[in-house]
C-alpha cells in the first residue's frame, strides 16, 4: 500500500470531495486526520470511515481521527497541528481542501443562470454589490486558511526533509468561469499562484507542492444544485462539458493520491485541471 505509515491531513473532509479523498488515503494504509468545522458531523464521519476500513488497510496501520476547527483562524490552525503532532508525531501529506462557496439563494440563482444561459448573454452584476464581509469571509477561508495550514505543515515537513502538499483550487481560479462569484474566483486564483510560489521555495527541502484546479465534481452540493435545476440544467451541463458529464469523486481522489505519492516526485508546482475538456 502506497501510504503505509504515512500521516495525512485532509482539511474540509467531513463530506464531499474531502471525505472521498480521506477514504482513498485510508484505503492505501494511511493514518488520516479528517477535519471540519462542526464536531458532531466530524464525529459521525470518523465513525463511518472506521466502519469501512478493510482488513488489509487496518493490517497496514490505517486509522482515522477527526479534529474540528475553523481554518480561517490561525490560532485554531496552530491548535489543530499541535493535536495532530500529539497523536502521530509527524505529518507527511497535507491536502488543502477546505473551502466555502456562496450559499445564499441569490448565489444559487446566479449559478443557475450561469449554467443555463450563454455567458455573453447573461446579465449578472455581482462585484458592484459584493459586501466587504462577503469578500473577506471568502478570502479568509479559501486563501488565508490554506496559508495557515501550509505554514504549520512546513514547520514539520522541512526539518523531516519530506512532505507532500496538494492544494485544491478550481477552474474558476484559472478562467474566471465562476462569474457569479468573483470573490470565489479570486480566492482560487490565489491558491494557484500560492502553489507555484511555495513549490519553488521548498522543493529543495524535500517538500513537493502541486495543485488540482477542479472542474465540476459530483458531490452532494453539486447533486443538490442539479436537482433544483431539473432536466433543463442537467442537459445544459452535459452540453457545456465536452466529456458530457461531471467528474466523480473517485476520479479526483485518484489524482490527489498520485500527486501525494512518491510516483509524482518530479511533478513540481504544477496545476492540473480535470474538467472534462471545459477549460484547456
Question: How are the SSEs placed, and which strands pair?
Answer:
Blueprint: E1 7-10, H1 16-27, E2 31-36, H2 39-52, H3 55-59, E3 63-68, H4 74-88, E4 93-96, H5 105-116, H6 132-160, E5 163-170, H7 172-175, H8 182-202, E6 207-214, H9 220-240, H10 249-260, E7 271-272
Parallel strand pairs: 1-2, 1-4, 2-3, 4-5, 5-6, 6-7
Structure explained in plain terms:
With 280 residues, the chain is α/β, with parallel strands linked by helices. The chain has one domain: NAD(P)-binding Rossmann-like Domain (Rossmann fold, 3-Layer(aba) Sandwich), CATH 3.40.50. The chain is 52% helix and 14% strand. The protein has helices at 16-27, 39-52, 55-59, 74-88, 105-116, 132-160, 172-175, 182-202, 220-240, 249-260; strands at 7-10, 31-36, 63-68, 93-96, 163-170, 207-214, 271-272. A seven-stranded parallel β-sheet has the order 3-2-1-4-5-6-7, with helices on both faces. Strand 1, helix 1 (16-27) and strand 2 (31-36) form a beta-alpha-beta unit. The longest helix is centred in the middle third of the chain and has 29 residues, at 132-160. It starts with 6 loop residues before the first strand and ends in an 8-residue tail after the last strand. The model has no long low-confidence stretch (mean pLDDT 89).
